[in-house]
Amino acid sequence: MIIADGFYEWKGEKGRKQPMFITLPDRKPFAFAGLWEVWNKKDEPDSIYKSCTIVTTEASKSIRDIHHRMPVILKPDVYEPWLNPENQEIVGLKNILAHGIQTELVSHPVSKQVNSVKNNDPSCIDPIA
Fold first, then answer.
1. Going from the N-terminus, what domains does the chain have, and what CATH number goes with each?
2. Which of 33, 60, 79, 122 has its CB surrounded by the most CB atoms within 10 Å?
3. Burial class of residue 79 in the structure, from the number of CB atoms within 10 Å of its CB (0-12 exposed, 13-18 middle, 19+ buried)
4. Confidence (pTM)
């Protein structure tokens, strides 16, 4: 799982896109469904690479007008089965991705300062008019 309290998507046409901050209605932290792997490069057998990804899905109705996909946000009651490395049951894991996710989200426009990684402070999520 990857812990967050929100994420950004950009709404609109190229050249005029407005960054939007998306979060849960209660603005509490949540967990994205994540996958991780440790692997070695073929020509470097002693190398160790650790990688992770956030699972995405079709956007819920609450943000579909912003973007066509969204990260999978897990409901707390599926944290344990998602994290269990012994859980290899494909049907059950697919069921989590289909029904164990948060779909009610809220959003608001934020400053275009989020377009640069140099800007990393709380004002990045402040609503703008």
1. 2-125 (3.90.1680.10)
2. 33
3. middle
4. 0.88
